[in-house]
């Protein structure tokens, strides 16, 4: 097996997806899977918000880090499933992340072609 941890996550998620789909005889199209996974992802994000104690109008309990971490891992499961169903592998996700992250830094530095992002103003010439 690949030593790349992201590739391992993709591999194990694909194994799990195949098992669930086979065992439960689920035959949705890739588009339908992405829709279902996006909905599940939103539900899991809601659970993250709950665990992060978002209710400012009440006295919060301490955050249970273990539960919060579990919900974040659930988010990752559905996100990776969506990537797989969209035809995105670990390397493509990694390269896409690097490119987008570089662009995000350029935006913050005022070097992007898209206006309105710069945290640092370009000097007038």
UniProtKB/TrEMBL annotation:
The UniProt entry, under Pfam families, shows:
dUTPase_2
Give the source's domain of life in one word: Bacteria
Q: Which InterPro entries match?
A: dUTPase/dCTP_pyrophosphatase
Gene3D superfamilies (alphabetical): Type II deoxyuridine triphosphatase
Designated name of the protein:
dUTPase
Organism, scientific name: Sulfobacillus harzensis
């Amino acid at each position: 097996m690949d030593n790349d941890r992201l590739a391992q996550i993709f591999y194990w998620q694909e194994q799990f997806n195949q098992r669930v789909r086979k065992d439960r005889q689920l035959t949705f199209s890739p588009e339908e899977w992405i829709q279902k996974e996006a909905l599940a992802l939103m539900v899991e994000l809601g659970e993250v918000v709950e665990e992060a104690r978002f209710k400012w109008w009440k006295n919060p309990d301490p955050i249970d880090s273990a539960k919060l971490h579990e919900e974040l891992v659930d988010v990752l499961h559905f996100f990776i499933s969506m990537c797989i169903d969209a035809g995105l592998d670990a390397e493509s996700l990694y390269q896409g992340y690097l490119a987008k992250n570089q662009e995000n830094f350029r935006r913050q530095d005022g070097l992007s072609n898209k206006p309105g992002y710069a945290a640092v103003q370009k000097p007038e010439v």
